[in-house]
């Protein structure tokens, strides 16, 4: 019987045109990605749209408890003042701002003390040494959380600008939707064509493969976390293990969201272009260097797995463009169909995050740049035997223990 089945399948394969397999696979993969991404992507809420009546806003200000904003800063003397000034100007009244100086070598510590002298609700914290078994930022955020007295903890970066009602809107949103974790996509300021291209590719792949827009689904594996704005109920933070559970994760923001989701708490990802903004990197070279720490942990510190994944992604992004131009006969239709799905996904993504829509036409070039940054990070990590982050070196052996 087995031989009969084998003969049947062999005869089927012999009748197939082998050059039809590639376009069929590419079209099937993009169909799967499209159907998995689109429903939640088009329904992703915007934080700007949640403002209610004056009565609702009064309730949000007075009934939702205290917010402790925790900012970890290392060598951010030039930018932290703007962040603190935007926080002290918030319309939400019941909040404190905890500024953690993480072993800075510039004037960050002095600037933090200066800001604390100007506002009663600013609490300065200075860390002089890093304990073993911790990444610097994770330790700083954890130390800040121990100083916090709020019912809600907002973990934020030291270079974020908050519009005056950002926290008010966020608290209204978590109250309305009964959430324990809210993370937002800020407006990204990127100057320079290729910096915008790499930024677009990074976020596009994050949306397609990490699917933060689906984090609200209880049964989905998708989760969300963005370092610029992670608003967490204290109970959810404590019960999910705090930053101690991710002490050695360079991708701490994303994994904070993952552990909160795994412990059964409700989370949501929203777009907050008109509430929060950040200049992620000043130029292309800075972003490529900054990405040295990020990619490898997602591949369990396997450089081989990372490189193979980049080759597959390059093929996934490039083959439809090539096949639509030089593909044989009607198979061009399959490549064109895959391109159409890619275009719809990218245009929606670009519209949400205000990115250049025409960059879809050079998507393979953007993917090449993205792959270069990822592969470079893996090569450097293997060559060095570890990762350099915030001027501290961590060996691959100790980072793997953090998994």
Automatic annotation (TrEMBL):
Domain (Glycosyltransferase 2-like) ranges: 68-238
Alphabetized GO MF terms: transferase activity
Family annotation (InterPro entries): Glyco_trans_2-like (IPR001173), Nucleotide-diphossugar_trans (IPR029044)
Segments crossing the lipid bilayer: 20-38, 301-323, 329-348, 360-382
Keyword vocabulary terms for this entry: Membrane, Transferase, Transmembrane, Transmembrane helix
Classification via SUPFAM superfamilies: Nucleotide-diphospho-sugar transferases
Stated name of the protein: Cellulose synthase/poly-beta-1,6-N-acetylglucosamine synthase-like glycosyltransferase
Recorded superkingdom: Bacteria
């Amino acid at each position: 019987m087995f031989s009969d089945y084998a003969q049947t399948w062999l005869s089927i394969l012999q009748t197939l045109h082998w050059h039809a397999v590639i376009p069929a696979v590419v079209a099937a993969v993009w169909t799967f990605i499209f159907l998995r991404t689109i429903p939640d992507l088009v329904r992703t809420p915007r934080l700007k749209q949640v403002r209610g009546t004056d009565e609702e806003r009064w309730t949000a200000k007075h009934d939702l408890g205290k917010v402790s904003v925790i900012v970890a800063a290392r060598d951010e003397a030039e930018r932290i003042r703007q962040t603190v000034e935007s926080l002290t100007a918030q319309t939400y009244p019941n909040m404190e701002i905890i500024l953690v100086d993480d072993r800075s070598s510039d004037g960050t510590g002095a600037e933090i003390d200066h800001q604390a002298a100007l506002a009663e609700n600013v609490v300065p914290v200075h860390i002089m040494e890093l304990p073993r078994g911790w990444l610097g930022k994770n330790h700083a955020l954890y130390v800040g959380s121990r100083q916090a007295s709020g019912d809600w903890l907002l973990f934020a970066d030291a270079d974020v600008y908050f519009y005056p009602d950002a926290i008010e809107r966020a608290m209204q949103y978590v109250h309305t939707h009964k959430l324990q974790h809210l993370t937002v996509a800020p407006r990204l300021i990127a100057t320079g064509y290729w910096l915008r291209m790499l930024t677009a590719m990074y976020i596009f792949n994050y949306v397609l493969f990490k699917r933060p827009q689906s984090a609200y689904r209880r049964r989905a594996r998708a989760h969300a976390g963005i370092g610029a704005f992670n608003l967490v109920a204290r109970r959810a933070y404590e019960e999910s293990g705090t930053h101690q559970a991710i002490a050695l994760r360079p991708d701490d923001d994303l994994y904070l969201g993952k552990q909160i989701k795994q412990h059964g708490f409700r989370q949501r990802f929203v777009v907050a272009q008109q509430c929060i903004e950040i200049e992620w990197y000043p130029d292309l070279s800075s972003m490529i260097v900054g990405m040295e720490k990020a990619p490898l942990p997602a591949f369990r510190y396997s450089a081989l797995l990372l490189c193979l994944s980049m080759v597959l992604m390059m093929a996934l992004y490039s083959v439809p463009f090539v096949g639509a131009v030089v593909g044989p006969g009607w198979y061009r239709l399959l490549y064109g169909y895959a391109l159409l799905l890619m275009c719809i996904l990218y245009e929606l993504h670009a519209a949400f995050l205000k990115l250049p829509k025409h960059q879809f036409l050079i998507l393979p070039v953007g993917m090449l740049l993205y792959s270069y940054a990822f592969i470079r990070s893996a090569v450097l990590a293997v060559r060095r035997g570890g990762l350099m982050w915030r001027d501290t070196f961590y060996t691959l052996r100790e980072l793997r223990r953090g998994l």
